[in-house]
Every structure is written in structure tokens, then in C-alpha cells.
Amino acid sequence: MTSELDIFVGNTTLIDEEVYRLWLDGYSVSDAVALRVRAGILEQTGATAAVLQSDTMDHYRTFHMLERLLHAPPKLLHQLVFQIPPSRQALLIERYYAFDEAFVREVLGKKLSKGTKKDLDDISAKTGITLKSCRRQFDNFKRVFKVVEEMRGSLADNIQQHFLFSDRLARDYAAIVFFANNRFETAKKKLQYLSFGDFAFCAELMIQNWTLGAVGEAPSKPDSQVDDMDMDLDKEFLQDLKELKVLVADKDLLDLHKSLVCTALRGKLGVFSEMEANFKPPAPQNLSRGLVNVAAKLTHNKDVRDLFVDLVEKFVEPCRSDHWPLGDVRLFLNQYSVTVHSLDGFRHQALWDRYMDTLRGCLLRLYHD
Amino acid sequence: MPGKLKVKIVAGRHLPVMDRASDLTDAFVEVKFGNTTFKTDVYLKSLNPQWNSEWFKFEVDDEDLQDEPLQITVLDHDTYSANDAIGKVYIDIDPLLYSEAATVISGWFPIYDTIHGIRGEINVVVKVDLFNDLNRFRQSSCGVKFFCTTSIPKCYRAVIIHGFVEELVVNEDPEYQWIDRIRTPRASNEARQRLISLMSGELQRKIGLKVLEMRGNAVVGYLQCFDLEGESGLVVRAIGTACTLDKLSSPAAFLPACNSPSKEMKESPLAHPPSHGCRSTHNSPIHTATGSRLTQNFSVSVPTLIYTGMGSGSAGKEGGPFKALLRQQTQSALEQRGGSPHRFCRRREFPFFTLTAFPPGFLVHVGGVVSARSVKLLDRIHNPDEPETRDAWWAEIRQEIKSHAKALGCHAVVGYSESTSICEEVCILSASGTAAVLNPRFLQDGTVEGCLEQRIEENLPAGCGFCHIPYDELNMPFPAHLTYCYNCRKQKVPDVLFTTIDLPTDATVVGKGCLIQARLCRLKKKAQAEANATAISNLLPFMEYEVHTQLMNKLKLKGMNALFGLRIQITVGENMLMGLASATAVYLAALPMPGGIQIAGKTPSDGSYEQHISHMQKKISDTIAKNKELYEINPPEISEEIIGSPIPEPKQRSRLLRSQSESSDEVTELDLSHGKKDAFVLEIDDTDAMEDVHSLLTDVPPPSGFYSCNTEIMPGINNWTSEIQMFTSVRVIRLSSLNLTNQALNKNFNDLCENLLKSLYFKLRSMIPCCLCHVNFTVSLPEDELIQVTVTAVAITFDKNQALQTTKTHIEKSLQRASTDNEELLQFPLELCSDSLPSHPFPPAKEHLESARSNSGIPAAQRAVTVEKASPMGEGNFRNRSAPPCANSTVGVVKMTPLSFIPGAKITKYLGIINMFFIRETTSLREEGGVSGFLHAFIAEVFAMVRAHVAALGGNAVVSYIMKQCVFMENPNKNQAQCLINVSGDAVIFVRESELEVISTQQPTANCQQSCAGGEVTT
User: Are B590 and B638 in contact (CB under 8 A)?
Assistant: First the structure.
């Protein structure tokens, strides 16, 4: 006696969260059955292995049919074939587009191309995530990227509108898309200590301040070439950043800046001497020079990609080697950026603020072990 | 010109890409009704076209309106080659033809293609203007309401129940026409879908005419079936119960209708109208019991058992008395065969009722189950306009049923149904029902025939009257054990009662009920034509008998004494016959406590054998005890003095043996004063018997928190909560051809059913505590070694804490609430609230939400206006009740249930019958996920199309939903499969009771005035 056909169709589509997770994790039906057995479901329910097999098959078939709709979530809401309560629909979408931290760290900042897709085997082997699941996550990133790539307006809002994500997930995807578009290097060994959350935080700040959309120029020239305002960094801004070089190039400005910072922080900073030393021009770990040089270099695409490497090399690592507490870093960065306003000879206050406000936020987030 | 049909094509969405080059589609729509076709403009390059067409108007006869479906075809325009069809939508406009149902059909319909399935959706608005007087006699029967529900629909009152209506129409099956060889599968499927749609329309119209002739206005318990007879044609047949219904709480309900005899009947409820039975002496071609050759078809009439439920000693040794009894009945059937082909006689001929639940007081006594089967050889239907052969076949079967009922002292048959099983050219026709005595007060004259001597107690004690035997105890048609009723002690009751109806609402039940199934397979030699039919008809009585035995044993094992909703299906295949009986077992307080089961070995010589027997005995006794505990069967102990008869000797036992049974002595010396038996003996004389006992014990009870039944509701559970889940599950197993023995077959079949149930329990575990209601199993044998089982049921959750209080008072309270009389009281606040809905200043935010969410493309407010406008004049009383459930939180959700009600909700309006037939075919089976993937998707699509049609009618649920057919054929070698599905049900609007209460408490009298004023303005 063999089962040729075995199906169950409910008027309301049954979704088993546990089986959905197994399916998303890329397990085959037999693996999923084995995992469910191991979870003790047979004992809890008194079911037989055959029942479990049939149930798992059924769910997998349903998920397979739903997958096509999940690729365009609004379709899931309007389709008539599967009657699913709204809360369940949200769950299906949210879980389908959820990603593993380990996986996203591997592909963050990489071009979402066929080439990267070929490397998924290695990523799968390295992270222990099934290849199937890696493919789904990669395809999700790529799909969202393709849809919002050409769109105007807020990146996170666009994603939310077209994929019906929760706020949190939409912001994460905005970061992923932003990183993929700007190809920021995140894989270097130096950067391994950083989590996806750290990068996503920085991405959000950069989207808010450093992109074309951030300036609010768009409405004035609606037919401009730049459509993807939230995804690309503001090129003009990056060009202008060269002007900041004067802060380290002009000796007078540098000294004045240093003395102002030192005066303000004297007695408040545990690592005052180290800080002071760092202002000296020949010092290898000149923090100020580092930060300004990072800004000045951003005209080149290559250097934009290395932004995070530079920040870690030029700022995070020196401070860390001197054992700066986070509070001191914050005090220093605040003072460092604020005192520039008192430099009479410096004409690029607005530019400085746009640069430094974001950078300060990023650096504070990046400064941890 | 009696009617104008107006159709507007609004928009499409999610269309498939038809032009690979542009990844877009140039779609347009053809709207066809009868022979008239309209077209929309081509909407270029879009997957979401906005046609927004003009109103296409069809001026048509109302006869056509009833027969023809509206056919909407979506196509992709192609400049250079033929336009490609994307898919079709068939819309049955029947619901628009009677005034109380829907007034507009408007919404998104899935665009369906028989090869590709659902391909996007289309938004359509349909209206009908009827110009003429509806009551004039014509070929059309517009205005007759149809209900699938097998009880009086919730918001109606039965003035008269007229009785049986039936009709069948035949045609050639397009699949078997010569042209099928040259046309595409798609064209062939569409021809079939269209033909069946036409035929069901015609059938419904013809039945409607009969109802009008009987002066009724509705058909309740309407059951329409297709017989795919292959080469010999396509038969669409329907049965139903004609009624005169009155809308509850409408003023008209209190005025006696002029043609209604109800008033005078009430004055003299005992008066029996003169009988006009067709005891004619016309001689029809005589069919002998053994079979004879007719002009073109071979026919074997199969004598069948009367399932009175008199299990004990119902059969005789070597089939002696058993056979004699049958012969006698068959003969009487022959004698009485009315042979009158005149249609005007027919409705009086068969006092049958397809209802399974009745108004209080309607059912007086129940005799037992009557069934008849007959094996026929199919032959090509030569003249589709004269379906006489098929008509004659059914007439024959019905006659037999009628005579069986008579033998039980009953003048009517309730819970009546008919079915067929076809394999190649052999067809088994089956009919079954429950013989009963009805209160003539509800019946039109002429229906009650014979049995005038039947006593009808007007003041029946509640809860047991229907159990009292209708037949004469001294002249019983079969041996039975009778006792005085355990409830009233006045009348005699049988020891066991089998019925095909639902448990009457006033019945007193102890504990809870449970689903019982008897499953049986019999191998048969492959044979041709007549030899085959003879072989089958020889097997049938044995199958019936064994099914009966199994049912009886399982009933005893559960410690219960009555079966409700009994449905026995015999399926014929190439090389086997399958029998599946399902019923809901209960313990009726009026019937005696069932005895246990005793096992007796035939050869008590072997010591180990003895030991084995005693071991089995213990197991059985334990199971009975366990079941009694599980189902809370603890009937109050009755002191024997009250009954006034001595306790019988404990050794007095009835004997029931398998297949070869001897008639027990008790048969002749019936202990009429008190037939209490302490045990039921199973004799184990061979391995077969052993097997049977084993199989008795392998039936596993459902896991805790689960109950199951095949009736509408579960006896003993009253506190349903609102969560429901209707589902269909299909399984096909392939038997290994090597060891096909009866035992192996039985085991396979048994395992198949048990595993299926277990799977259901597992799948629905999140709903615990819950009950599977209306569990409906269908068996078919699509190929030599394939068995297909299809199950449709609904899982309903209930409140465990309150459900446990199964005290009698609780039951009675809930029963009272369910009774129709009290519903009228409820109706008033309902009227108030639904009146006030449109005018009531509802939170505007909510309305916004609603219009935003409604997918119809028409804002909700505007939609409501169109509804108003389209409603016929003079409907002031009714129209207000049609307020859409806009306050409902479940907008867009359409519930489906095989039950006639929705727990925790009130049905406020019936919108019309849903009767749909779909074919799906694939030539890329593997790509669609194999047979499971293919059928899973198809069933999901069928559900979607049903829901879409209901939503378009303005409804939010389908009740009395049934999947009547699911014919699945595969050819994996060719990578092909085909499936035909036929579903039906009643589209309704329901309102949650909790919402009703909220609204009615919120609405003071001021609102009443407001709504009254509103009513005046609109009329």
C-alpha cells in the first residue's frame, strides 16, 4: 500500500509556524520530519511518523505555492486562492524576508550579482546555513534591490510600501540596499567585530544626511538625472569635502582647533594626554588628520568603499589601543566638532556639520570591542 | 421580453503575461449570454486593465435566464494571429431571479482556465431587470427559491411541506463526441463545463415548475448530482423537498395563505386527508428480482435489507428468514410498483423528504433505515429528450423504498438521498432514507398515504416520541426486541435505532456522541456486461449485511444504542466492491442500555485458544468501559419496579454471528415486556472472524479534546465558539497487486481511513477543544488498484468549561433556544439593528476602512446605493434586512461550512444557491508538483471561486457546502491528469451574535422611528 496522493486543503490556509521555519531554513521534507520528531512532537500529540510526514509534505506544498506570491507581497494580500488572516499574512512575509546575521555579514556591501550568487556555496559552508536558505536570502536582497533601485523618495518607505515589511525590517533592508549600491567594504578582517546592526545604524545616518534625498533638493529639479536619491551619496557633497582639508593643512587653524578642544576638555577626560598627543602633526595616530583625510578622500569611489576600513583604522583602532572609554570618545568627538564653529577662519561650517554629525554618530556606534 | 440582463466589465488585475516580448498583455473581454456576444475595447499593454465598459444589455426570456450561465471570456488581442484566451468566468445569474435573494452580483472573480487554473481576476457587475408578473404559468420558474440546506432555512418558517420533487436531464457527454478527437483539451473541457452548467440550469427550472405546480415557493434539501456515464452519456439529476416558506417576522407570516390548508389543519390536526395513492394496476415491464433482459438494458434488482437497527437476530440461518423477508419485500415492491409514467401522479407517489432536520412536532415516529439498490447496465442514451430509461430506473428504486417504509408501518421516508456508482458500463443505483410517521399538519394533502390506522399521539412526551415504534408489535415486519420506553414508560421502543436523519433537537441524549464507520472490501472477478452485473448484485446483499454487522458491533463497543446520519456508500470498481458506512452513534435515554459483547470460540478444546478468547473478551469489555467513560455515558439507573417487569435471566442472549448466523430463539419468544439483553455474542469460528474482532479494536478513539460526528452537531456539546475551519482532504493509495485478498484489502482500506482521520486530528490540533462535524467520506475506485477517499468536514471549536456541563437542563435550554418558535423573538431586535445600520451614524473611520479594503473597485457606499436601487419595488419589508454586514470585522473573509448554521452567528439572509462544476486538466503533471500538487492547487482554486461568487453576491459565508464529486484521473506516464469537481451550497449573509447584542443594546427606540421613516421614503 503506497500513498499516491495525499492532500489537505482548508478554507482558511493552515500555517504551521514551526514547519514554516524549517522550510525557510532550507530543510528537505525528510530532514524537517526528523527535526520535528527530535523536537518531541510525536510524544506531545501521540501522532505517528506517517502522519507527521504527510503533514510536513502538505505544509511544504502550501509554502511552495505561496512562495510565488511572497515574491510580491501585495499580491499575497489581493490574491483569492489562499484565505489567510491578515496577521498570518504579515507573519508569512516577515519571516520569508528575515535573514540570518551570519549570512548578511557575508554579503553586505557586495554587488548582488550572479558572481556573488556563485559564492553562496562557500558562504553556506562557512556559516552552516543551508544553501537553499542562502539562495532565498540572497534572492530576497536582490529582489528588493531591483524593485526600489529606480524609485524616488525614501528608501525605507519605498521598501515598506512594495514589500509590506514592518518598520524594523524595512530599515534593515534599506541598509542592505544602500550598502549593496555603494559597495562598502565590510568583509575585511578588521571589520569582523562589527555586527550588521552597527552597519545598519551607520547606513541610516548616512541615508539621512549624506544622500541627495537628504538635502531636499529634489523637488526643485524634478527632472534631474538622479532618480535614486536615497541610494546614492551626494556627489557634490563628497567633492566639497575636500575643502575640509584646510583644518589640518592650515597650521594656524589646526593649532587653534587643538587648543580650543584641549581647553574645553582639560580635567574632563581620563585620557587627556593621549588625546592631546594625537593632535601633534607628526604623530602617527593623528585623529584629527585621520578624520579630515577620510573626508577628503571620499571623492574617489574606491575610497568611498573603504570608508569603514578607514574609520576603523584611523580612529577606532588608535583610540582602542589607548584604552579610551566610550564616554571619553563621545566627549572628545562632541567637542572636536563643536569647536570648529569657533574657528573664525574656517568657512565651511555647514559642510563640516553635515559631515561630522553623521560621522560622530557612526564612530560612536563603531567604537566597541 | 421578460427580462433584461445587464453586465459591466470594470477591470482586471494580476493578468498573466501573454506577450513575452513586452512582458505585458493586451486584454479584452467577451461577454456572452445565449447567442449574443459583446466585446470590450482592447486595453493595451497592461496586466491590470481598466476597461470600465458600458452596460452590455441582453434582452432575454426568463427561461433562458434560468438555464444559461453568463459567460465571460478574457482574451489577449493579437494583431497577426488568433487571439489567445486567458480564461473564463461563468456566472450563474439565478440568485438574481428571485426577489428576496441578491439584487446585484458585483466583485472580483478569478479568471479560470481549465489548463492553467486561475489566471488573474476580473471585476464584473451584473444586474437583472425582470418586467413581468412572476406568478403566470410559463416554462420558467423564476421566483422559486432553492436551498441545499436539509432543514428549514434559519430565517424562514415552513407553512406547508409539500414533499418530494425530482427531475433528471440527460445529454451526450462532449468528451465522448466524435469532435473531441479534433479539438483541444481546453475546448473539450469548456464544452463540458458549459453543458453541465446549462443542464443544471434547465434541471433547476424544471424542478421549479413542479414546485409551482404544487403551489410551493421553495425547494429545501436540493441535491443535484452528475452521473458521468462515459460513452452512454451524461445525466444530471436532482431531488429536493418542495415547501411553502414564509420569511420569519414578516407580517405575511401571520396571515394564512389562501391556498394553505394549514389553518384548517390546525383545527383538526388528526384529520388525514384522503389518500390519493397511485396504487394503479398499470403494468410496467416487470423486473424480476433475479434480473431480466429489457429492450436495451440489463437490469438486476437487488433485494436490500431494511436497516431497522434491530441488530439482534435480524438474520436467519443460511439466510433463511432473512432471505424470505427480503423476497417478500421485493415482491411487495413489485406488486406495488405504480408503473404510472404520468408525471402529475409522481409527487404523490413518493412521500419522501430530503430533509434531515424538522420543525418541532413534524416527526412523530421513526421506523428505521430503508434502502434499496439496483445494478444496471448502461447503454447509450439515444434520445436525450426522452430520459425515460433513467427515470424508470429511479422510479423502480423509489417504489422499493416506499414499500420498505410501508412494511415498517410508516407512510413517509425522511432524510432521503440517492446516489450512483459507475464503473465502465455497470451502474449501481442506491437510495436510502428513514421510514417515519409524520404529523400531517405540515403536509399538503395527498402526501400522507396509507397507514391511517397509525396512532399519532399529539401530546408526545418530549424527547422520546420519535423512538416509539410505528409498526404493530404483534405483526412486526422483522424480529426485534421491544421494551417500554425508558423515558415515558408508555410506548414500546426498539433496543437499537438506526436513522439517516440528524438527531431531533428535542431528543434526550446521555453523554456525547461519536463517529462510527463500517468499512468493507470485496474482491470480484473482472467480467463483462451482464456477467459483471450479476456478480455485483450477488455480492451486494452480503456486503450490506456485513456493513450492518460491523456497525452494530462498533455501536455496542461504544456502549451506545442509536445511529444518526447513517450513510452507506457502495462503490464499484473493476475488480472489487467497497462499502463504507458512516454514522454518528449516541446513547438515547429512551432506549434500553445496550448489552456488552461476548466472544465465543467454536472449538473450546484447545486451552491456549480458550485463553486467547478470554484475553480478547477482556480487551473488549475494557474498551466498552473506557468508551463509556470517554463519552460520558452514565444513564440514570432505573429501578426495575418502575418498569414493572422482572429482570430477565442474564444468560438470555441474542446472538449475532458474522455472515453465517443463526436465528436466535428469542426471535419467536420476544420478551416484549422487557427485552433487556446483557450481551451480544460474537462467535469466532475462523480467521476471518478473528480479523473482524481485531479490526473492532483497532479503531482508535480521537485524541483527547477532539470529537467527531457526521451529523450537523455533536450531541452533548452545546457551547460552540466561533472559530470554524472547513477542509477537504483527499487520499489515493495504490494497492500492491500481488496479495490481493479480501483481508488484505480490508486492512488496507481500514488503515487508509484511520490514518486519514489521525492526520486530520493532528493537523487541527491547534483548535482543541474542537469537534469535527459533518464528516463526509466518499470512496471511489478510479482504477484497478487505486482507492480514493475524499473527506470534507468542518472543525468547530467549543468552550471546554461550559461544554462539560452536560446537565439536562443545559441541553434543554439550548434546545429551546434553537427551536424556531423562539427565533421569532430574537428576530425583533435583529430587525431593529439591521434597519438602523445604514442610517445609523456609524464611526466614519470604520466606513473608510471598509471602502478602502473592499476589493470591488466600487466604494462601499456607492455599492450600497446600487443595491438599494436594484431591489424590486414593494420589498420594503425585506430590503432593510439585507443590510450588508459592514460592521463586521471580517471583511472579505468568506466562511464555508457543510453545516446549515454558523456557530455564534445569525444568518440574516439567503442569497441563493451556489452550484459549480469545474474541470482542470494538465499535461505537465510533474512540473505542477505531481498529483498532490495538482489536486491541492485545484481544490484551493475551487474554494477561491466559490468564495468569490459568494462575495460578489454580497455574502460572507456558504452554508450546507458539499463537494458532491471529485473525480480524479491520472496518467503519470503521459505526464497528464484530469480532475472534475462539483460543489454546491447556500450563499448567506451572517452577523455575529455578539455584534447583534452590542448593536441592539446601543439602539434605543429613537432608532426605530428613524428606520421607519427611512422605510417610507424609500418605498
Answer: no
Q: Which three cell numbers stand for residue B688?
A: 476471518
Give the whole-angstrom CA distance, residue B30 versus residue B71: 8
What proportions of chain B, in percent to the nearest 5, are helix, strand and coil? 30, 30, 35
pLDDT at B690 over 90: no
Distance CA B253, CA B245 (A): 9
Helices A131-149 and A167-182 cross at an angle (nearest 10°) of 80
Report the interhelical angle of B820-839 vs B1005-1018 (nearest 10°): 70
List CB contacts (< 8 A) between B736 and chain A. 1-2
- What does the DSSP assignment read for B546-585? HHHHHHHHHHHHTT--EEEEEEEEEEE-SSEEEEEEEEEE
If we measure between CA atoms, which residue out of B894, B895, B893, B888 comes closest to residue B846? Answer: B888
Among the residue ranges A22-36, A284-298, A346-360, B39-53, the one predicted with the least confidence is: A284-298
Sign of CA dihedral B449, B454, B460, B462: negative
Give B-chain residues touching A61 at CB under 8 angstroms.
Answer: 929, 932-933, 936
> How sure is the predictor about A159, in pLDDT bands with cuts at 50, 70 and 90?
very high
Nearest to B895 by CA among B936, B842, B956: B956
Q: Residue B557 corresponds to which cell in the numbers above?
A: 463497543
Q: Do A55 and B943 touch (CB under 8 A)?
A: no
**3-state class percentages of chain A: helix first, strand second, coil last, to nearest 5:** 70, 5, 30
DSSP state of B860: H
Q: How far does the CA of residue A215 sit from the closest CA of chain B (Å)? A: 34
C-alpha closest to that of B500 among B634, B376, B401: B401
Residue from the list B730, B896, B947 with its beta carbon closest to the beta carbon of A5: B730
Q: Among B494, B538, B523, which residue's Cα sits nearest to residue B319? A: B538
Percent of chain B with pLDDT over 90: 26
* pLDDT per position as a tens digit, B204-213: 988 988 898 8
Hey, what's the cell of B175?
Answer: 468528451
Task: Please tell me the distance in Å from B622's CA to the nearest CA on chain A.
Answer: 21
The answer to whether the CB atoms of A46 and B703 lie below 8 A apart is yes
Distances (CA, A) of B947 to A47, B13, B107, B194, B843: 33, 17, 11, 20, 28
The values of phi and psi at residue B492, to 5°, are: -85, 145
Q: What are phi and psi of B779, to 5 degrees?
A: -110, 140
Type of residue numbered A67:
E
Buried/exposed code over A329-368 (b: 16+ C-beta within 10 A; e: otherwise): bebbbebbbebbeebeebebeebbebbbebbbbbbebbbe
What tens digit of pLDDT does each residue of A271-327 get? 777 777 776 655 545 777 788 888 888 888 888 889 999 899 888 888 888 888 888
Give the whole-angstrom CA distance, residue A138 versus residue A113.
Answer: 10
Whole-number Cα distances in Å, B727 to A13, B182, B406, B895, B942:
9, 38, 39, 11, 12
What does the pLDDT average to over B714-741?
85
Angle at B16 between CA B12 and CA B20, to 5 degrees: 130
Dist. CA A2–CA B931, nearest whole Å: 14
**Any bridge partners for residue B597, and if so which?**
B680
B936 vs A3, A7, A83: nearest CB: A7
Cβ of B14 and A10 within 8 Å?
no
Cell of B8: 459591466
Q: What is d(CA B898, CA B961) in angstroms, rounded to the nearest whole number?
A: 4
Q: Where are the beta strands (DSSP E) in B573-657?
A: 576-588, 596-601, 654-655
Report the DSSP pairing between strands B145-146 and B105-113.
unpaired
DSSP code of A243?
Answer: G
Helices within B921-962 (DSSP H only): 930-952
Cβ-based contacts of A48 with chain B (< 8 Å): 755, 758
